[in-house]
Amino acid sequence: MKYINSPIDTINFKNHQVFIKRDDLLDKYFLGNKARKFYYFLNYDFNGIKKIISFGSPQANSLYSLSVLAKIKNVKLDFYVSHIATFLKQNPHGNYKEALKNGANIIELNQNEISTQEYVEENILKNEEHYIYIEEGGRVKEAESGIKILADEIMNWAKDNDENNLKIFLPSGTGTTALFLQKHLDMEVLTCACVGDEAYLKKQFFQLNSDESKHPTILKNKKKYHFGKLYKEFYDIHLELLDETQIEFDLLYDSLGWLNLISSKYFTQNKILYIHQGGILGNESMIKRYENKYL
User: Are residues 112 and 176 in the same domain?
Assistant: First the structure.
C-alpha cells in the first residue's frame, strides 16, 4: 500500500474560497486522520506481537482503521465497547460491519461501574501479553510521526503556492491530530470539540502536551451538542456542502466543524485550509436516520 501526499482542492463555500486537504483520498482502505495517526504502527515491526487491543464506540472510525491495520499485520484485534445497540447487531453497517468483515473481535462489556478505558487497563491488559495497546481514537504519542508528515505536506504546499497567513482548521474528537499539527506548524491551528465540550478537549491536549502555549485554538461551539445525536442543521449543511463543493464530508464531525467555522471571525478574515479527515463510511446509515426523522 502506498502512502502518498493527499491533494489540496480549492472550493468556494458561502462565497468564500477554502482550501481542502483531501486526506479522505489517501488510500482506499487506510485513509483520513486514522491513517496519519496509525502511520507509525503501519511501519512498526510486529514480530512477536499477537494482537492489537483498543476500545471505543462500535461505529468508531478507529475501529475500522485498526481492523485494516490488524489485517495488514496479520494479528488479531480485540476492540472493547461499552454497549452495542440491538439494531446494530441485527443490522450491521458502517464501521462496525466493515471491521467485522476484517475479522475484528468486538467485545461488548455491558458494565457501567467504570469507564471502558479503566476496565481495559485494570482488567484486560494485565492478563495479556505480546500485544500493542492503542487508546481510543489513536490518542497515543506514536501518532505524532504520521501527523508530522501531514504538517510537512501543508508547509511545503503553502511555500510552493506562496500561501501566507493560512489558518488550519479541523474538527476534533480526542484532539490528537490538531495538537500534533500545532506542534509542527508555524501556522495557527483551529479546532472545535465534537465529543464532549471545550473542557474535555483541553484535558485531552494536556494528556499529550502539558505546554498550553503549544495547544491549538479551540473555537467555542455556539450551542451544546450531544455526540451522535441527530441535529437538522448538521444534515442541512452536509447537503449544502455536497451540492456546492461536490465533496462528501462526515456527518458526525465535519457538519459541526463547518457550522463552527463559518460562524467564526476566521472564515471571512483569513485564508482557511480545512483538513478532510475521512470518516464517511458511516454516512449511509446516518443519512437513513436523518431521512426517517426529518423527511
Answer: no
